[in-house]
Amino acid sequence: MKDSIAITIPAHPRYLCVVRDVTVSMGKIYNLPETDIENIKLAVDEACSNVIKYACRGDTTQKIDIKFSVTKKGFEVVIDDNGIKAKPELIEGRSLTDIRPGGLGVHLIKRAFDVVSFDETKKKGNRLRLIRRLDKKAGVQ
Amino acid sequence: MKDSIAITIPAHPRYLCVVRDVTVSMGKIYNLPETDIENIKLAVDEACSNVIKYACRGDTTQKIDIKFSVTKKGFEVVIDDNGIKAKPELIEGRSLTDIRPGGLGVHLIKRAFDVVSFDETKKKGNRLRLIRRLDKKAGVQ
Amino acid sequence: MKIDIKDYKGSPIITPTGDIDLYSSPELRAELMRLISKKTRALHVDFGNVSYIDSSGIATFVEGLKNMKSYGGRLKLIGLSEAIMEIFRFSKLDKVFEIYGNIDEAFNS
Amino acid sequence: MKIDIKDYKGSPIITPTGDIDLYSSPELRAELMRLISKKTRALHVDFGNVSYIDSSGIATFVEGLKNMKSYGGRLKLIGLSEAIMEIFRFSKLDKVFEIYGNIDEAFNS
Ligand SMILES: Nc1ncnc2c1ncn2[C@@H]1O[C@H](COP(=O)(O)OP(=O)(O)O)[C@@H](O)[C@H]1O
Ligand SMILES: Nc1ncnc2c1ncn2[C@@H]1O[C@H](COP(=O)(O)OP(=O)(O)O)[C@@H](O)[C@H]1O
């Protein structure tokens, strides 16, 4: 549990603002640069929005667990749900030159995080692991 | 899990700001008046500070679970730890006319919440239940 | 998020306040679509009070723009903060939308 | 929290910025005690950038005040926001501390 915090929210868009606030708080505690914090906040929001839309399909009685930690690897966010299993090979943002609604979230997640991977060993639901590598400046003083 | 969120932090003062942010977010989601949100934020901070100081005694490997929910009873915050059991009969703020450092936290907690009670049935550690009654105006629209 | 709609020189200005995310964007979409269904010629969105926008908000505006273009209407975005402008740039949408610094610039264009 | 210490007309002004809580108050306490150990006659704390204070922060100032009074020093608090003033009032400390609206008021007192 050292240097890690966990939050559980209902799979309801109403609570995304709480997730954003916690993401920003953690980014500040670990002295990430302000633009990195903004990008990470948006990316975590996008990942949780996708869980609400695709894994839980609007079933707001389900919940989402989000764990934030800072390790040697970097700033890590792990998002767990018990919804419908994603097919990672089918998750793809639209081409950015193809102007239409949707398909931006995945791009925004990949912009903020160096590692974006589903834990394939998880039996039920999904576990998405997001890691942003930190340079030496960041981290608790 | 309906209309409730949970957060787990290390028993370290560094994470109190996250708890404050989540408290404010929840207060806003449930449309509490701004001064109530400020008072509740301070009270939850004071309660968690006391867990860090007295239940965990600076052992930052321990953790604190905080659950926020809105029920018919009101806005409820439940704070769990696995630290040293409190003796509720010994928890007392100082007289406000006796000017000395300390002894304010309990007053600030009681100002914000209508119910402040330790769950005596919990075997290990403490569970503090805080309830602020809501008037009809508040709540999700 | 709150949404304020005012008339300015005969055109509506939509002013959302707060965060535009998966929770609030359906309400924004409903307002946009209501105005678009009336074949509003020029629609202005003032971003001055928008603190945050995610991809669901962006998608709402892309949808609005497509619908307006179908009848020759114009959707003008005004006063985007640097952080929000940056998301439009990253999404290559800064070239797709009409974006202005302030309301007068938008009206005189 | 950040702490800035400046000299103004021969007296130190401490300006904390941010939240004063159980995490940050030990640092504030250390700065206060360092100045008090030098028997500083008048110490000013500018609350203009303090967004939040909890009981550990209040306790720090109560301790500072007691120590300064022992040698006849004066601790002056300046520019408290209404929310923070309200906590001092609730704690009946508004009558115990010297509280001023701005720096000049504090200096001329
Ligand atoms: N958690 C998920 N579970 C299942 N499918 C997903 C998930 N996240 C994304 N996808 C798929 O990837 C596509 C692209 O996602 P995204 O870039 O966020 O855009 P959008 O959600 O706006 O379509 C989605 O349309 C969806 O088909
Ligand atoms: N969670 C707790 N566990 C054990 N004792 C506590 C707890 N919370 C408060 N106390 C006791 O109650 C007293 C008053 O608490 P409080 O008003 O917060 O002031 P302070 O912590 O500044 O002394 C404390 O000094 C402590 O002895």
3D architecture notes:
The complex is a heterotetramer, with 2 copies of chain A (141 residues) and 2 copies of chain C (109 residues). Chain A is α+β, with helices and mostly antiparallel strands. Chain A has one domain (3-132): Histidine kinase-like ATPase, C-terminal domain (Heat Shock Protein 90). Chain A has 3 helices and 5 strands, in the order βααββαββ. A 5-stranded antiparallel β-sheet of chain A has the order 1-2-3-5-4, covered by helices on one side. In chain A, strand 4 (115-118) and strand 5 (126-132) form a beta hairpin. In chain C, 39% of the residues lie in helices and 31% in strands. Chain C contains 4 helices and 6 strands; from the N terminus they run E-E-H-E-E-H-E-H-E-H. At the A-B interface, strand 1 and helix 1 of A face strand 1 and helix 1 of B. The structure holds adenosine-5'-diphosphate (2 copies). Residues 46, 50-51, 53-55, 86, 91-93, 102-106 of chain B line the site of one adenosine-5'-diphosphate.
Report a brief summary of the structure.
Chain A is 31% helix and 25% strand. Chain A has helices spanning 16-29, 34-55, 105-112; strands at 4-10, 63-71, 74-81, 115-118, 126-132. In chain A, strands 1-2-3-5-4 form a five-stranded antiparallel beta sheet, covered by helices on one side.
